[in-house]
Design a protein that fits this description.
single chain; Rossmann fold; 2 domains; five-stranded mixed beta sheet; about 40% helix
Length: about 400
């Protein structure tokens, strides 16, 4: 126990609070049970530690622990909470809950048995709370955390502090917003840097592009080898096929997937390929698009496949397809606060209303001509005109 306490004190003390992620101010911290899920490496642990450091001057009132700690091989979470509660702690912050087999049942029991304790936990983006062994959904306020937006990347690196801008403002007032921003900084080279190595906060800790790519590759490996098996019953052969599928898609997306070809490549069945795609989607590695947003993620073939973020692509291939990069970026920025679908014309349908076609500086309106509420998100331009909007500007959404 003393080892856990010492580790908690040390981690909080060493936590840098100079920059807070977008989600911190959006969380209703007063709720008794809060869950934060998301991909590996995006800063969930840091978010918890920052909150403790900033809002608990008396550190004994709070406690942080990762549930993959070896201490839990011979002790239970319930034991820990009882020990802390009897010593005055009333806010428990639990990291990596998916690595603790009985986490749903024990958290439910703790919630019911200790009515004056607040619990905040983080876990893999694969977590399915409603279908878990003990249904927490009626008690839980759940958040899904994304990686750094372009706006956050500029703030974290100390380049420029910008406020988030709602989508409606970008669509209606992009010329003024872009003009004001580009007077403060040279945006295009910074955007190019972000596309390559800006989605994960550990960009500050990596000395060069090679080390950053290695960190991203490690995230992919850990998500497939450790996070998926921690939540889904899966055998070793299936894990190997999951990796092969992900690597194969890296060379071909975006595309309307030819399932038969993928079945032949992986020597498996159609249903198995769709199952693997669903796992990669839940792990925040792929972003399949569907024409009907109400379709269940695990049912049917997606209409188009993108990557969750552009840094995954640059980590896997030296020459990623530029069209894929642009669409993956736009989707990753829009998904935080908007519903996106695959439209019959154009690249993305947003909230069932706004149609966006993505391209380079010379992209014209031919594909979306005469369609109401249609826009072009154009790369390689600082400012736009009419319904042609700079692609980088969507990086200010959150």
């Amino acid at each position: 126990m003393q080892t856990l306490i010492a580790s908690y004190a040390r981690l909080v003390e060493k936590t840098d609070c100079s920059y807070l992620r977008y989600l911190h101010n959006n969380i209703a911290w007063q709720e008794r049970l809060i869950g934060i899920k998301g991909a590996r490496g995006i800063g969930k642990t840091t978010l918890l530690l920052q909150h403790i450091k900033l809002f608990f001057p008396d550190r004994s009132k709070a406690f942080y622990v990762s549930l993959d700690n070896i201490w839990f091989s011979t002790h239970t979470l319930t034991e820990l909470v009882e020990y802390l509660y009897t010593r005055g702690a009333n806010h428990i912050f639990l990291d990596e809950v998916h690595r603790y087999p009985t986490w749903t049942r024990e958290i439910k029991n703790i919630y019911d048995s200790y009515p004056d304790i607040n619990i905040v936990f983080t876990g893999s983006s694969l977590l399915e709370i409603v279908n878990a062994e003990a249904d927490l959904s009626r008690r839980l306020r759940m958040y899904h955390m994304q990686g750094l937006s372009f706006r956050e990347y500029l703030g974290l690196t100390g380049i420029c502090e910008l406020s988030p801008i709602p989508l409606r403002e970008i669509l209606s007032n992009h010329l003024q917003i872009a003009s004001e921003t580009t007077t403060r900084l040279k945006v295009l080279p910074l955007f190019e840097e972000y596309i390559k190595k800006g989605y994960y906060p550990f960009t500050l800790e990596t000395a060069d592009d090679v080390s950053y790519k290695q960190r991203v590759q490690n995230i992919i490996t850990t998500a497939i080898d450790e996070d998926i098996p921690a939540i889904v019953e899966i055998n070793y052969e299936t894990l190997l096929k999951t990796k092969k599928l992900f690597s194969t898609l890296a060379q071909t997306v975006p595309f309307t997937p030819y399932i038969t070809t993928l079945c032949e490549t992986l020597s498996t069945t159609r249903n198995h390929v769709l199952h693997l795609m669903s796992l990669l989607e839940r792990a925040d590695l792929l972003r399949p698009l569907r024409s009907d947003s109400r379709k269940l993620k695990s049912v049917g073939k997606p209409d188009k496949i993108l990557f969750n973020n552009t840094n995954l692509m640059t980590a896997l291939t030296d020459n990623p397809d530029i069209g894929t990069m642009r669409e993956s970026f736009l989707a990753s920025m829009l998904c935080e606060r908007n519903e996106i679908q695959y439209p019959p014309i154009g690249d993305l349908l947003v909230n069932g209303i706004s149609l966006i076609e993505v391209g380079g500086r010379n992209k014209n309106y031919s594909q979306i001509a005469n369609i109401e509420n249609s826009y072009i998100a154009a790369d390689e331009i600082e400012t736009g005109f009419g319904n042609k909007i700079p692609l980088w500007l969507f990086g200010l959404l959150y």
